Inverse folding.
């Protein structure tokens, strides 16, 4: 691409660049897992970015996390001129549709609306207190002791765990069930051990090579975030987990089993 064309592309972009450091993919498996989680075709290495003034090819360089439990993601994309920008996964997914470009590039009179998936997420984030109307005096109930809050490490750590079962989890981005592994007795092995309990991870190509079975003891490295396992839809009973699994382990590596 000519220098003038790259300069013109830079002038047209209104997307916000990342504020600082962002999470980069450690390997191909992690890239494939995240892209699939976002509902994008993992077989592609380039994607469309579209707005009112342009359509351009971008690549995914990494992602940022947000929210108290670090479960929200913002994708970091790189344009052909080398500049970086932030975009919501659902928005980038909708940009891949042929109809998206026609709507955004032909309709110059109205401001673009965020996709329904983003609007729904914003509504979910509204304080619950704003939606609650007190109509009568509530009966005071005895306070229950709050469970001990687990402070999760941000870096990769060493785990021990036991395979509980395999399950199916609903992925609302690509609207299909994903295979996952549910782990129990999950413990973060460090100077002060952290008893996590139940956690889950994607049944990636790397894990499938180990041919895991329920009851097997595992040791591995990985990153853990607070992200509840979504129940699968229309899944057989053996692939349903009947209790809440509040934590997800990303990109387990250096796996040992016994």
């Amino acid at each position: 691409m000519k220098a003038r064309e790259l300069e013109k592309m830079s002038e047209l972009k209104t997307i916000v660049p990342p504020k600082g450091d962002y999470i980069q993919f450690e390997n191909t498996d992690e890239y494939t897992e995240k892209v699939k989680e976002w509902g994008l075709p993992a077989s592609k290495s380039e994607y469309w970015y579209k707005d009112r003034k342009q359509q351009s090819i971008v690549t995914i360089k990494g992602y940022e996390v947000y929210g108290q439990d670090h479960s929200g993601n913002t994708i970091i994309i790189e344009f052909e001129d080398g500049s970086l920008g932030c975009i919501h996964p659902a928005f980038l997914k909708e940009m891949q549709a042929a109809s998206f470009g026609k709507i955004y590039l032909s309709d110059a009179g109205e401001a673009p609306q965020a996709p329904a998936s983003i609007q729904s997420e914003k509504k979910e984030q509204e304080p619950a207190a704003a939606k609650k109307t007190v109509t009568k005096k509530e009966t005071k109930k005895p306070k229950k002791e709050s469970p001990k809050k687990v402070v999760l490490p941000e870096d990769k750590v060493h785990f021990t765990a036991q395979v509980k079962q395999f399950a199916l989890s609903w992925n609302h981005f690509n609207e299909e069930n994903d295979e996952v592994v549910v782990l129990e007795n999950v413990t973060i092995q460090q100077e002060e051990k952290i008893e996590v309990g139940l956690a889950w991870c994607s049944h990636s190509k790397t894990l499938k090579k180990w041919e895991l079975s329920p009851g097997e003891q595992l040791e591995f490295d990985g990153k853990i975030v607070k992200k509840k396992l979504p129940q699968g839809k229309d899944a057989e009973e053996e692939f349903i987990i009947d209790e809440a699994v509040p934590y997800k382990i990303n990109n387990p590596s250096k796996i040992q089993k016994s």
